[in-house]
Amino acid sequence: MAGPLLLRSLFSASSRKSLSSHLVRPPCLSRGFTAGPASAAAAAATDAKVFLEPSRLRNVAVIAHVDHGKTTLMDRLLRQCGADIPHERAMDSISLERERGITIASKVTSISWKENELNMVDTPGHADFGGEVERVVGMVEGAVLVVDAGEGPLAQTKFVLAKALNYGLRPILLLNKVDRPSVSEERCDEVESLVFDLFANLGATEEQLDFPVLYASAKEGWASSTFTKDPPADVKNMSQLLDAIVRHVPPPKANLDAPFQMLVSMMEKDYYLGRILTGRVSSGIIHVGDRIHGLRSKESGVEKIEEGKVVKLMKKKGTNMVLIDSAGAGDIISMAGMASPSIGHTVANTEVMTALPTVVLDPPTISMTFGVNDSPLAGRDGTHLTGGKIGDRLMAEAETNLAINVLPGLSESYEVQGRGELQLGILIENMRREGFELSVSPPKVMYKTENGLKLEPIEEVTIEVNDEHVGLVMEALSHRRAEVADMGPVAGNVGRTRLSLTCPSRGLVGYRSVFSSDTRGTGFMHRAFLSIHVLLEILFFPFLLFSLLFQLHLVVMS
Ligand code: GDP
């Protein structure tokens, strides 16, 4: 077993410099994999037991409400740490993410800062992709909460923050977009206290409440620990944020002497390498060539899925995959070599027979039926037409996307359960682009029965509209059983009103297009899952029955 003295940085500046001439692209890895410093190091040095010292690691998630500037911030951080970024929105690698300007899947990348290695996890800010946030919070110890200093915390800020606090992460608050004319120091103080209240309401610990605050303009590429709109040129960069991460986020608690264990948090399929499993090494050390096995927890105990060998170990550096020879506890890595384990499974040394606990996901709230296109125009648009092909594609999606459940239905149809219309819409669009032709039913809200009571999902809705549209929006939403929780003018935006409401998901199905036309396309609406409540009609039903019988009784008596 390697002791701490043997530890050596994989990516130290000196080795990078001296080994840069060895960088070659292996012939079998076509998709942006680079045989980086680590594999070159293996060729040059005989010591294969090189991995990162846990005290020099920081694992951090970047969380935010949609459009608060998270992607812009990630671009800046990558650039500052020397990553070669070919275009804007470097972390949004899925084509639909770039087209729509939203992050759909969580991604991890690592950047070197001074003597440290920061594993940064980029997460989606849209509630429909909340499952992506849930599955990565267990990999990190800290979170950078990005909040638009003009808008303040919104529905998804609360959702992602709740998850982060629940997992005991140490947060750092970054008030972004301070370059905007409407953002003043007073406004930042206001937003800071709103966020503090949110922390307190979500049950943050004393330690979590002691979060540092930074002021930033991701667009201009700087962050500062004191309020300013124009920092001096020598500190007009992201150094203060990177230093705050190193100072404030604790290094991973890692036991290098225990046998190797890793919970799979992400899974991709590669044409050459097969399954690429990504996760955080929870204990031990792993080397290329080690024998490992995949484990799954079942009610009856732990089941062994497959035994195999580590064929490749990889780490994302900036926008490139870099091959490494070994990795130690606390680090976030990817590996190839196993064909069966998936997200939520444990990959471990063959002597280990215990599976790591998996993350608990919120339940799906909406479902749609996917089936074969049986219209007279069938077969004109796509090449994958049969129920079998559609089923295989949906099952493959459910394997990599934990927030989606697929249940086989009647006559070659499948019930697909997810978190929202956008999430299922993205899946349909992806399938359409891949050449699938299918028919889909309108979305249905999913109910749950517990102790004989029917429960339904309730969502928190934040709406921002021009003052003249408030009446129309309120009327439409009251018909959909929404209840207003808060209402007021938007700070720094004259003539705009913000409404916070709670509404059953069934009331919101199909509302987005009505909202767009009611507000002439000028309104914003954000939704996030809040809780599950008893269906109100169920409570009313006994009451209605009783009053009907009572009236009948009165009629008979008279
Ligand atoms: P995300 O949805 O959280 O990833 O947000 P994006 O990074 O896509 O940013 C949303 C919008 O805000 C884009 O139009 C950005 O150009 C803009 N933006 C991001 N950061 C800043 C900032 O610091 N200042 C200003 N004025 N705009 C910003």
TrEMBL record:
Kindly give the PANTHER family that the UniProt entry links to this protein: TR-TYPE G DOMAIN-CONTAINING PROTEIN (PTHR42908:SF8), TRANSLATION ELONGATION FACTOR-RELATED (PTHR42908)
Q: Provide the protein name.
A: Elongation factor family protein isoform 3
Q: Where are its TM segments located?
A: 534-556
UniProtKB keywords: Elongation factor, Membrane, Protein biosynthesis, Transmembrane, Transmembrane helix
Report which superkingdom the organism of origin falls in.
Answer: Eukaryota
Q: Which SUPFAM superfamilies match?
A: EF-G C-terminal domain-like (SSF54980), P-loop containing nucleoside triphosphate hydrolases (SSF52540), Translation proteins (SSF50447)
Q: What molecular function terms (GO) are annotated for this protein?
A: GTP binding; GTPase activity; translation elongation factor activity
Q: Which InterPro entries match?
A: BipA_GTP-bd_dom (IPR047041), BipA_II (IPR047042), BipA_III (IPR047043), BipA_V (IPR035651), EFG_III/V (IPR035647), EFG_V-like (IPR000640), EFTu-like_2 (IPR004161), G_TR_CS (IPR031157)
Pfam families, sorted: EFG_C, GTP_EFTU, GTP_EFTU_D2
NCBIfam families from the UniProt entry? small_GTP
